[in-house]
Amino acid sequence: xxxxxxxxxxxxxxxxxxxxxxxxxxxxxxxxxxxxxxxxxxxxxxxxxxxxxxxxxxxxxxxxxxxxxxxxxxxxxxxxxxxxxxxxxxxxxxxxxxxxxxxxxxxxxxxxxxxxxxxxxxxxxxxxxxxxxxxxxxxxxxxxxxxxxxxxxxxxxxxxxxxxxxxxxxxxxxxxxxxxxxxxxxxxxxxxxxxxxxxxxxxxxxxxxxxxxxxxxxxxxxxxxxxxxxxxxxxxxxxxxxxxxxxxxxxxxxxxxxxxxxxxxxxxxxxxxxxxxxxxxxxxxxxxxxxxxxxxxxxxxxxxxxxxxxxxxxxxxxxxxxxxxxxxxxxxxxxxxxxxxxxxxxxxxxxxxxxxxxxxxxxxxxxxxxxxxxxxxxxxxxx
Length: 383
What we know:
The N and C termini lie far apart (105 Å). Helices cover 61% and strands 0% of the residues. Helix 5 (113-124) packs across helix 17 (313-323). It has 3 domains: 2-55, no CATH class; 113-321, Hypothetical protein, domain 2 (Endonuclease III, domain 1); 330-382, no CATH class. It has helices at residues 2-10, 15-23, 43-54, 57-102, 113-124, 130-134, 136-144, 150-163, 168-184, 193-198, 201-207, 214-231, 240-243, 251-262, 272-280, 292-302, 313-323, 348-359, 373-382. It has 19 helices and no strands. The protein has 383 residues and is mainly alpha-helical. Keywords: DNA damage, DNA repair, Glycosidase, Hydrolase, Lyase, Mitochondrion, Nucleus. InterPro entries: DNA_glycosylase, HhH-GPD_domain, HhH_base_excis_C, NTH1. It catalyses: 2'-deoxyribonucleotide-(2'-deoxyribose 5'-phosphate)-2'-deoxyribonucleotide-DNA = a 3'-end 2'-deoxyribonucleotide-(2,3-dehydro-2,3-deoxyribose 5'-phosphate)-DNA + a 5'-end 5'-phospho-2'-deoxyribonucleoside-DNA + H(+). Its EC number is 3.2.2.-, 4.2.99.18.
């Protein structure tokens, strides 16, 4: 039956023979590549020829099996190599970790730290930044009028959880939207633990969609609300270990929450502005891993004798980074440090342009996220 099927499908065509010849030219003998005689009427002769042609397949199949075995061997080798590579990477990570753990933190700030920091504090007293009114330390009071109590502390936590990868202006808008929404739903104090427990996660996600990673944050806020309700009787805990056990809450949020909600000063909250300025101002030693945690440990070690600055340094540097020392195109033209010679990150080209503009009667640009009018007036009076 098999031979008849082959005969019906191929007939007198030579395609099958030629194709097999191309595939197994290196393995098939010339005698096996002879074509079928179209004029042979003998059934035995035809069966013999078919058998000869089909006999080409075993070498090809065998060769295919060999290739499969080779692929298997290659795969096993690759897995072994990947394990070796993973082991190597793991060793490297452990080595870096050991270096980091043994790395000595500075016990005193560099000589130019205090002159720069004190001058920044003077400038901050002359400018208004988004963090001053819409930052996490003030947004709860600005939105709801509260300044203490369970609801206030919970609002501070929610504000901090929303603030990650989000500008203060956007965070403020979302917090106000939540407050107005819950008041309209009958919650007298607006945004509260009970309101978050009752709201559907999808609805919460729609209310906070303007913040970065809003879907993940909606899940984290709901989970944290359940934890507070079941484990802490709706109250914010007083230790950094308990706070950072909440989903989506890291050391920066934890230390800031303790400072804002409980006035407990056990660490410094380091955000992206502080991390960036500590690096470009050369306030901390260079390291392979200049992450916020490393910056935090350095600041806490350098300011061990000045713990009163632990709660001040964050809003001072964050506000300065928001309106003056910007991540892109910093406003060195309005910074009083730019002409003192102690700042290592001055944009000298901008200062030259500012001097040229002044000679031509062009005033300093006052456009900013905050209010620079008082600081600009001081700069113009000095020069």
